[in-house]
Specification:
mainly alpha; two-stranded antiparallel sheet; disordered N terminus
Length: 263
């Protein structure tokens, strides 16, 4: 890919409002409704960044994904306080899948953390997640350091959406995958809405419509910085970090197709 000067497109007024205030939505357990105008504006913004295909565009896209998600969670925040706090890491022993642009952006930040970057290849190679388990205490996230997240400031949206009202329930879930964990119900439709729009933009840009395992994906990029440019050019150097669980389900693909039809 030829290097070009790139200034990320400024979010249009609708996307700017999403970043500030979150989406307008009617959230229900079975069927939620979102603004079509907001979804289309976000889809077009994602699409423009993906078509640019530069490191700056990846960083801008990852920042938009996180920013809209944070604004959405703040807008629809549950009145009950979360049990999550530094040192509580029961959710950090499971498979975490994120988008390629988020992996590229996080890898750039990790590259500036020499100790973390040096330890990552061995940790990623050693980690073997059992997809049948909710959590596997033998295989912590590669970024978990003494019970705390080593990339907390730049952690992906998937991790930000993961929250619980009861740490005891989280512990029970580690040993019993059928145990119920009380969580903020608004996070499920909000995350699904963002995922569908991102997958729609990926498909429209002719890029892989899937996520990748976080730690393995970042390790691959650190080992070969050229992966990012090749990924945008159609050569998926992150494929080794993909799995069946990193691919969107039928409901998400259907929602993404519906958004694509509006583009």
């Amino acid at each position: 890919m030829t290097a070009i000067d790139f200034a990320p497109p400024a979010p249009d007024p609708i996307v700017a409002r999403l970043l500030r205030d979150g989406p307008d939505a009617e959230l229900h357990p079975d069927a939620s409704r979102f603004s079509e105008a907001e979804g289309l504006a976000l889809l077009r913004h994602y699409f423009a960044l993906l078509r640019a295909g530069t490191p700056q565009a990846s960083d801008a896209l990852a920042a938009t994904i996180t920013g809209v998600g944070e604004a959405a969670m703040a807008k629809y925040r549950h009145p009950q306080a979360f049990a999550c706090k530094k040192g509580c890491s029961w959710c950090c022993f499971q498979l975490v899948t994120v988008s390629a642009p988020e992996i590229f952006a996080i890898a750039r930040q990790v590259r500036a953390m020499p100790a973390l970057a040096a330890a990552l290849p061995e940790k990623a190679a050693r980690r073997q997640i059992d997809p049948a388990r909710f959590a596997d205490l033998r295989n912590p996230c590669v970024f978990l350091d003494r019970g705390a997240c080593g990339i907390h400031a730049v952690r992906p949206l998937t991790c930000r959406y993961y929250a619980s009202f009861d740490v005891g329930a989280c512990l029970r879930r580690v040993n019993d995958p059928d145990a119920n964990v009380p969580y903020p119900g608004a996070h499920v439709p909000l995350r699904a809405w963002q995922a569908a729009i991102l997958f729609a933009a990926l498909g429209a840009a002719g890029l892989p419509v899937q996520d990748y395992e976080l730690g393995e994906g970042v390790a691959l990029v650190l080992a070969d910085p050229g992966i990012e440019a090749r990924w945008y050019a159609g050569d998926d150097g992150l494929a080794a970090a993909a799995s069946q669980r990193s691919r969107p389900g039928a409901a998400t693909l259907a929602a993404a197709a519906a958004w694509s039809a509006r583009l």
